[in-house]
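Hi V.,

Quick status before I head out on leave. The structure for the redesign project is tokenized and pasted below; the design run finished overnight.
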């Protein structure tokens, strides 16, 4: 089986390429000929390469760009598309993939046949430094979209999904400046970052979208997630349930976050966070 693995995110690229290599001959693409191409142009060029080289399966990293390219590519090839798969198995009837459904409450298994376009989020598969493989150049055709202006909305250099430790800020914080408590704790942890629930980013606008975790925000898989003043609604949990350890701090002992937490502290975040920071 020939499997093409690619992502515009370097770390994620190594993960999908390694996984691609687990299932057969691994191919990757070189996009240096089309540096500013839009997702439609990339998908069309990738489809041409896939057909030319008889690639069986494409596994893309589920970065912003990857999520945009993947379904377009599947449409070009007329192949099934499975987004954000958790596992891939190859059998006599083709591929079987698993992906989370119902906000992460269930796992669904799909048989997708011998050809498919798949995506995987960061941390789903392990990376290897040098995976080898064959590099295929994408054609340098002009982009079909002309960028007339770029306006910054979020800090794109900030990457919550690759943080090892995440301190989550919820509505339990009373004021924007109190987020300094979460930043202080995150600052004590190597690879620490501050994330937040939707209302903190979308309604209060205390933090940018790049910090937003959940169903409609980022999915994280850190070593430890500290949920502070976060109630743990299903849409929030959908984005954090991949964390290896979840520690919750909440004044309400019945808060749903305690149902998914490995360690729960029933207490006031204004007292608990400074204490944890001090201990670290
Ligand atoms: C379609 C849809 C998509 C959504 N997507 C997302 C998403 O991607 N991400 C997301 O987060 N939400 C999402 N939501 C919103 C979600 O349903 C919740 O409303 C949201 O997660 C609640 O945020 P919160 O936990 O910060 O606030 P709240 O639910 O208000 O919880 C605040 C918590 O803080 C605790 N608290 C208060 N004071 C303190 C204190 N001093 N110390 C400690 N604890 C304290 C309270 O007991 C409470 O549990 C979505 C909703 C919908 C309908």
């Amino acid at each position: 089986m020939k499997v093409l693995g690619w992502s515009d995110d370097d770390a994620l690229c190594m993960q999908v390429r390694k996984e691609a290599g687990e299932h057969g001959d691994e191919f990757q693409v070189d996009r240096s000929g089309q540096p500013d191409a839009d997702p439609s142009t990339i998908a069309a060029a990738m489809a041409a390469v896939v057909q030319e080289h008889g690639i069986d399966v494409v596994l893309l990293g589920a970065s912003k760009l990857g999520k945009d390219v993947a379904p377009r590519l599947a449409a070009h090839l007329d192949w099934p598309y499975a987004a954000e798969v958790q596992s891939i198995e190859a059998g006599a009837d083709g591929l079987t993939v698993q992906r989370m459904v119902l906000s992460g409450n269930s796992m669904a298994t799909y048989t997708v046949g011998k050809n498919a376009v798949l995506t995987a989020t960061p941390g789903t598969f392990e990376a290897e430094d040098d995976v080898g493989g064959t590099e295929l150049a994408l054609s340098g055709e002009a982009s079909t979209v002309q960028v007339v202006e770029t306006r910054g909305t979020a800090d794109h250099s900030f990457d919550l999904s690759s943080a090892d430790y995440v301190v989550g800020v919820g509505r339990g914080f009373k004021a924007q400046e109190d987020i300094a408590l979460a930043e202080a704790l995150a600052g004590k942890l190597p690879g620490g970052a501050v994330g937040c629930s939707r209302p903190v980013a979308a309604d209060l606008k205390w933090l940018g979208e790049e910090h937003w975790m959940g169903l409609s925000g980022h999915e994280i898989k850190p070593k430890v997630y500290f949920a502070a003043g976060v109630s743990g609604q299903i849409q929030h949990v959908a984005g954090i349930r991949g964390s290896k350890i979840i520690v919750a701090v909440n004044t309400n002992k019945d808060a749903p976050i305690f149902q998914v937490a490995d360690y729960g502290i029933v207490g006031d975040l204004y007292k608990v966070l400074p204490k944890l920071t001090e201990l670290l």
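Above is the designed sequence. The longest helix spans residues 39-53.

G. will cover questions while I'm gone.

Best,
W.
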